[in-house]
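Researcher: Please predict.
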Amino acid sequence: MTLQADEVLPGSRPDGKPNSQISATLGGEKQGLPERIALAAFIAIPFLALLAAAPVAWGWGLGWRDLAIGTAMYFLTCHGITVGYHRHFTHRAFKTGRVLKIVMAVVGSLAVEGPVVRWVADHRKHHKFSDRDGDPHSPWRYGESVPALLKGLWWAHMGWMFDSEQTPQHIYAPDLVKDSDIRAISRLFWLWTTLSLLLPALAGGLLSWSWQGAVTAFFWGSLVRVALLHHVTWSINSICHAVGSRPFRSRDKSGNVWWLAVLSCGESWHNLHHADPTAARHGVLRGQVDSSARIIRWFELAGWAREVRWPDAARIAARRTA
C-alpha cells in the first residue's frame, strides 16, 4: 500500500512528510551516527555470543533448561516476525481483531529486528523494486560477476541496514502510521528490546533459583537466540535471492532454499512468496514445511483470523513455470 504523489496523510505537512505527532518511530528518515553505533552493537554483541556458542557448549555443556528457554524464545519471536510483521502487517494475508494485532506487533518486536512500522516499510519497498534499482537489499545490486555478487550478498545480508537513507514510512506504510496502537508499539521498540533480552534470564533464574541459571539463560536464550534469528532472517534477503529453485514465475530472482525452511518458519519458500506476495502460505508444494501457515490456520480455526488468503490449486498452477 502506497500513497499517490498528490496524496497527503491527515496531519501531514504539504510536502507529505508526517508531523512529529504521527511519526511511527523515534528519529527521522535519515540514520545518524548514534543510530549506526547502536545498530552495530546490537549486531556485533549477539554475533560474538553465537561464535562463542560452540566452545561454550563444548567446555561447560548446554543444559536442557537453557535449550528449552532458547528454543521457545526463538520460535516465539520468529513467528512474531513471519506471521505478524510479514504476512499480516506487510502483506495483509489475513485480517484479525485488535487484541491479536497488538500481540503480534509486540511479539514481533521481541525479535529485535526493528520497530514494526520501519520493518514493514522496508519490506514493502523491497517488493516494489525487488532485485531492481530501488530495492533496499538486493544481492544483485553491484552486478552479476562473482566478486560483485559476493559484495552484493554482504550488502543484502546486513550492509543495507547502515544506509543513512531510510525508507519513508509515510509513503510505504501509511496504514500503520495512522494506526495509533501500532504507532505506539513501534515507538516503544526500546522497551520490547529490553524485555526480549531480560525475559530468558528471568526465566532461567526462577527455574534454577540461582544467578548462574540467569546468566546461562541470558547467554543462550537472549544473545545466541537473537543472533541466530537475525542471520536466518537476513539470509532470506541474501541467500534466497541468489540461489535456490524457482518453480514459480516472479519478476525477480527469489528462490526456494529448503535447508532454511524450519529455522525460518517457512519463509525460505521464497519463490512462491514473490510470485504471490499476499498468500498466507509460502510452502505450497508437497513436503514444504511452513509452520507460519500452520499457526495462521490455527488462528482461523479459533476464530481469531478471517479472510485468510489461502492459495488454491488453480492459483498455484497459474504461477507455475512452464
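Model: Residues 33-60 form the longest helix (28 residues).
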